[in-house]
Each structure stands twice: as C-alpha cells, then as structure tokens.
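Everyone, study these two lines:
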Amino acid sequence: MKRKIAFIISVLLVFLVALPQVFSANGESEGLEIFHATTVINLNDQFSLNPNVYFYGKENDYELEIQYGGGEFSIPIESVQKAEFSDTEKPSYQTLPPEGSYALKTIDEGDTVYSTNSSPEHKLDIISSSEYPVYQDENGENVIYIGNTAFFYEEKEDIVMTEDDSSKTTGGETETTTTEEQLT
C-alpha cells in the first residue's frame, strides 16, 4: 500500500513540474507585446492591416518587428500603439504550427481575411494576389498568421461562365446567352 501511495505521489510530482513548462513553451509570447494599428499599415504590398487590428510584436528603436509568413516584417512604430487588456479579454497569442504543416496558397484580392477574435468583420484587406502560408485550425478552417494572431481565410467563390444551349438567330447573327454558375 505504501508503494502505491509513493508511486502516485511521484507521478503527480512529475506532472506538476512538467506540465507548466509544456504550457509556457507553447503559449508564451516570448517577450512580445500586444499592439493595435492606428492607421492603415501596408504589409509588403500584399495585405493592409486596418486600424484597431490587434497583433503581437517586439518594439525596436523606430520600428516594430512582427511575425509575417515564415519570418518577420518591420512596420513603423508611429503606426501602432500598445494595447491594454485584462487577461480574459486579451487576444490569444498564436505560435506557428510546425514547419511543413501549411499549404502555400495564392490569396487573391476577392478573398476574405478576418479576425478570429470578433464577428466576421474584415480586419485585413488584400492589396494584390500573392502566395502566403495557409494553415488549418483544429476545426478544419483555413487560417493565416500575422503578428502571431490568427485570421480566418476564405477563398472567393469561383464563378464560371457557361454557354446556354439555346441560341437566337436574328438578322443572320447568332446570339448566345451566358449564365453564371457558382462552383462549390
């Protein structure tokens, strides 16, 4: 009986020591602070961050370094302001999933990218079509990460023009009607 109790206590001690370290390694912001945009911020002529978008970054002398794609991107410090939150309201810090767990997709101007922390309100505008790493969250939704913040990504509906089988001939000319079909 004493051996069982000693075993249970030793297992509990291992969990008490190991689990906090695992959680801090996965969810810690590594000295990054949370900011919000005060003006529209152009990110590499690919996206624009609209005012009041929240993201994590590291402040240097005249710029803010944020996570962008698989690397970092610098934005002018005068375009942002530190944000104040209680721990319950604070947008969650997102670490990038392991290397290779994304698909490099072309994000087009008609696609939608919005914050995961609010209603489907546009938080990023797409300036030009370009490739960017797209991940899937635990619910199978497409997600991109900018400033260690997750944003939902939805591709626009593809519209295909098809010719209608009925044609009219008037005055020697044939008129063909086209219709739009949405691919799902």
Notes: The radius of gyration is 24 Å. Residues 16 and 84 are 31 Å apart (CA to CA). Helices lie at 2-27. The chain has one helix and 15 strands.
